[in-house]
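Deliverable D4.2, example record:
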Amino acid sequence: MQFKPFIFICILTLVGCNNSDSEPSIPIDQPSTDLVTVGTISGFGSIISNGVTFSTTAATVMIDTEPSNLAELQVGMVVSIRGSVNTNTGATTASYIHFEGDVEGVITNINTNNNSLIILGRTILVDELTVINNASFATLAIGNIVKVSGQWRDQERIQATYITRTQNQYMNGMHMQVKGVIQALDPDLQRFNIGTQVCDYSGAMLKLNGLALTNGMYVEASSMRALSENVFFLDQLQIRQRNRNRYNDGDKLCNLNCDFELSGFITEFISATDFTVDSLPVTTTSSTVFVNGSSSSLGLDVKVKVDGVLNDDDILVADKIVFSLQSFIEIDADVESINVSNAELSILGINVETNSSTLFHDHSDAALREFSINDLAFGDRVNIRAYMDSDRVMVSRLERQPPEDKVTLKALVEEINPSSLTLLGVNVTTNQNTIYRNKAREIIDAETFFLSVTTTSLVKAEGSYDNTAILANKLYLLDCDYGCL
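Output generated by the structure prediction step:
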């Protein structure tokens, strides 16, 4: 994997080695190494995932099992990209891009306590990095029709990286589909469950490759009929190969000893040398490098990025494992200054840094598809989610938003005074009109709030900013047990 330094240098320029779809692909006589990456799309121009910018001039795009085009892909979707890296220049070129949607259907339950949805029986988790189009988590409602892409977690849960609301309610003829493992199969009734969803296949076209339905079979169930008494009456039932369809359309995920990069959650864990990430088997060796943790940090439901080599048994042998740091910081305010060459900007007087892995999404009226720090201007309203790396505020997601007067700052408390706090160096003051809430979201008085706050507390402040301090209209005590929405 000698090309890795070239990728790193290429991306830090923020220009990218292949920054335009108009650039030529790598000539076949140039030395190259095969590369597969599975992760969230963080930007376009050409396509960026797992911190790598791929040229797409020669790429085939597939959505589920159908040929498609790059315009159908969106920031936040989980994709697999197969391509090559020029080992002389570090230029990366995609030959194949595959998006596999997880579920498209009606929301039947919303749990605001743990930030989750139920869609066609699948449990969908929402966190601070989820890109939501045409809605927010607060405005999603039971009965809405949504499409979801995400990373797999244990217990058949999906950590949503992308949600788009397509309709406020089901309309005749709309397509709905869900992928999952068959449970509670009843051949007599011709029904089974996917998660909590009862599926009736009595009228469905079966595409099972000659196999009989069994519990544990991974399938795609689809219909153009509305739920009836909470039963999903299927039009088609198709067997799928979970990992093959997730990562690639061929018999092999990639050629022997190709470089493989995977972001996701540990979905099964036996030991540090035997676990799965996003349902792909992974192992470590004595040479594996760990960042933000150690081998003892590995465990069920831990979020990681794994770089390594896929062996002949389709096991990812990890060269490096990076443990994700939680993006508990939120800043929603106007841009005060920008340093494009250093990939930095200032908001509320706080210096924040972006990098090759930062997800950029334009939620403003401009709605730029190819959006990056280069497109930001003084006074733009942005919402950032970030994590602390030593004393640096590193941006994991940046969304440009429509203009707004209110500002938001969420961070760990640094200083406590009788009626004020300091968050990331910003003074947050209060007055008699400030509303206080505890972790249970109950309204409390000022005295109770300040008695509860410590320098390890996570606090969210909403209010007005006078270029010096925030006057808080609302102060919340928070935790991030279920994400930092």
